[in-house]
Amino acid sequence: MIRLQVTALIAAALSLAAAGPAPAQAQSPLVSAVLPGSRSVQIGAPATLFSTIINAGPANLGGCRITLSGAPGGLALDYRTSFLGGPLNQPVPIAAGKFQNFILIFNAAAPLTTLGQALVYACDGAPQAPDTPGVNTVDLLFSETPVPDIVAEFLTLSRDGIVTVPFSQGRGSAFAISTYNTGIAGRIVVSADTGPANLPVTATVCDTIPAPATCRQGPALSIQVDIPGGGITTFSVFVNATDTVPFVPETNRVFVRYNGTDGVFHGSTSVAIRSQ
Prior knowledge:
The chain is mostly beta strands and about 280 residues long.
């Protein structure tokens, strides 16, 4: 699971680098990503995620680190750069064209919900990486009581975090998601949308029988699924376009959200979308 998460987050960051600098990115050589994009935990347990910073510039950089940006009171972040432990909060160098993985450890002493929490991805001598909602921001819930905690891993047909819709051929596309609930069992409302971007895209979702990856019922804009604690549940997301969608991965994305029936969030993920 760790390998899949790290591979996916590097692919997410590389998709931004491949797109070329957007106006907000033009002054920074840094691109970044975080996976999973959310955690939902009980107070007293850390919310742990993986992150990466890519130095896409021509110069070696030092002092690379990840910190909170305008965090709500009570939220704390530590990081380390080794899966085997090691010191906390030690900045590291990143050579030109290379990347560094981080383990992010969030804690809160009181109930807290923060959606789209921005982080500062920075190295000495360079502007910080730009905020990219759904790629390098995080959704966090710290609850007084045990809650579902849906950790989602996506797989696109191209295996690069990008879903390409063959609009010119009059066809749609799809991607798969495998979720692992590290929290308690719960009834979860699963839905897909394009977030703040007004895209000519419709997205529907179904939960699937893993082999041969067939829907248990017809795809819908949202579905309700009983997800067991400690269990894996798989989904397919079907995407259609009614017009062209340019490749702008920092804004043009499909978000998949996992909320309780009371509307409380318990997980999220996203992929870039384009048409051809």
